[in-house]
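Researcher: Last one for today. Full complex below.
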Amino acid sequence: MKNIWIICRKELRSYFVSPVAYILLVMFAVIFGFFFWNSVGYFVNMAMEATMEGEQFPMNVNEQVMRPLLANINVIGLFFIPLITMRLFAEEKRSGTIELLTTSPITDMQVIIGKWLSAVIMYALMLAATVLDILFLFKFGNPDWKPLAIGYLGLLLQAGGLIAIGTFISTLTRNQIIAGAVTFGVCLLLWVLGWVSQYENATWAQVLSYMSVITHFESFAKGLLDTKDVIFDATVIFLGLFFTARSMESMRWRS
Amino acid sequence: MITVNGLTKRYAHTTAVDHISFEVKKGQIVGFLGPNGAGKTTTMRMLTCFLTPTGGAATVAGFDILEQPLEVKKRIGYLPETPPVYLEMRIAEYLSFVGQLKGLSGVELRSRVDYVCERCAVADVRNKIIGKLSKGYRQRVGLAQAIIHNPDVLILDEPTAGLDPKQINETRDLIKSLAGDHTIILSTHILPEVSQTCEQVIIINKGKIVATDSVSNLQQRARSGESVIVEVAGRNGSLDAATVQHKLEQISGVSRVLPKADGQRRLIFEVEATKDMGVRGNVARAVVESGWDLNELRPAALSLEEIFLQLTGSEAPAEMEPVAAGETKE
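Model: Here's the assembly. Have a good evening.
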């Protein structure tokens, strides 16, 4: 546990001593801010129209502002996750520091979990930047915090899975750009797999759709905590880290 | 301290290290010598548990590298060919990170960081960012990193590669000063380095060990007795070989004179002397006093370079001085 933390802290430091962390945080916050502004603006407009026409259809901040916004954060995250994970191992392989880590008295798994955890914390900090905007909703509206919390939990769990995949891909190359591009491709595929279920109902389509991360995010976005979705994300995390460990082991054979 | 038994590393198409066995005793400095691509780095990487061997066994400080890698790693300090430094870190911060990786903490960690900074002469720049340092400083940080947990065994892969002559000397002195407390294996393809720093040499070529011996023994092997090559020329006209040979044989301390080559105007002899006699001065005097010219007088012993070339075939290491074409001792 101590070793994991040593690695994790070092990784976080290297995000923050370079401009990487600040650029990611600022870009994420700006893009989300724009989405938020749009979404709230639209909601306010709708509300005014509804009052003017005297109609009484129910308006709900959670359903009409937060749910699409959570989906939006998820899409922005898709673009940013490869940027967080691509350097994790590729950089160590290029600079040769991987030799330091693998010849120190710590296990491969401690290195992997430490690095993965640092990336998850980095993503969590990006999510935290969006909370600042959400606070305005609490100031001027009356949203329910519980579905919101579950939505954020879903974002974090799903990102944990994608980050584990990105960590694995980063061990395969010493070139950060390759690692980033492949991670983005794989994440995007896991995203769009769900689309087949829109026109096809056969078993294969259901299987594909079930493998899509977006299928499992939907209930989180609605504020529902479903065991099967949590297990799905946990499985992706486990598999990603498992493959990372196998990949590190194979480095010891190939050099 | 280190025993290696039939260690082998095979890749898909090549065998990088082929059944090598050797032993290193506690406190020794051992030089691992060989041309580029001989398998030095691969062997070191296997000893540090960075690579898994395909065959054979090795133990470091009594622990098997396959069975108890964590115990082995605790006892090894390793400096790879390029120092494994994080360029964005400050020296003290980096050393403290490595110390933590090796299991140090608290007061002990801080005192070790201070100690290795002093020892490797980086104390004055300890708060500088490593990326802004010269290669020599990075190398010293690499060494500091390797000794931070006071390991029993130090494995250094080409510790002086890419340094300027002054830095090379400083690094060598540093390594020598570390020898008391640590057992050291260092690899190099620079020969003078071995004769200057190491007690024991392992010469490796194409994945196989071609010689294991102490530096002095290797040189002894080349310099059995003292023998000198003499080239004599006549002042006016030709020389009679038999006369010259006779004259040389009469010099005190000379045991045998072998004619090596004779031309119209010059004669070359190999003069063997009994041990511990300064025969060269006598030879020079005798030749000159007889009215002949002394064109050349040099020791016939093989240099370490020549031994190395003999052992590893014709492939000369890159950094080597061009070897004078000369007689080899049969």
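Chain A touches chain B at residues 3, 6, 10, 13-14, 17-18, 95-107, 252-255 (CB under 8 Å). The CA atoms of residues 68 and 86 of chain A lie 28 Å apart.
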